[in-house]
């Protein structure tokens, strides 16, 4: 991907708001996401929840006998997904979008050109 030069305000915003991914190896584009768990049992329960939700999705009603409390498993997986939504990055994405779709030029000539000029015909000529 090509590096795009950022203005200083966008660069500062990016440094503050790009928080979800932590770069581990920039040469190979390897990043990590932190999920806070309280031990190996949490890791195993999360893995089991993901497997159970997948089974429910694949098997539907037939897997209910093997999965006694599907609501708890589904809730656990959805909670992790909520934690992975990049809320911090949203402000940066909005600023980037605005910067690229509606660039503001600082020169007076450019501001003059961007002004709308409406000309109407005199009523006597129409």
What can you tell me about this protein's structure?
There is one protein chain. The protein has 126 residues and is mainly alpha-helical. It has 2 domains: 1-20 and 87-126, no CATH class; 37-85, no CATH class. Helix content is 53%, strand content 7%. It has helices at 8-17, 40-59, 70-84, 87-101, 108-114, and strands at 21-25, 30-33. A hairpin with a 4-residue loop joins strand 1 and strand 2 (30-33). Helix 1 packs antiparallel against helix 4 (87-101) and helix 2 crosses helix 3. Residues 106-114 have low confidence and may be disordered.
Widest β-sheet, arrangement of strands: 1-2
β-strand amount: 5-15%
Structural class: mainly alpha
Overall tally of domains:
2
Query: What percentage of residues falls in helices of 4 or more residues?
Result: 40-55%
Please state the CA-atom Rg, rounded to the nearest Å. Answer: 26 Å
Number of strands: 2
Number of helices: 5
Gross geometry: elongated
Any low-confidence stretches, pLDDT <50, length ≥5? Answer: 106-114
Can you write the helix and strand succession as a string? HEEHHHH
Largest sheet: 2 strands, antiparallel
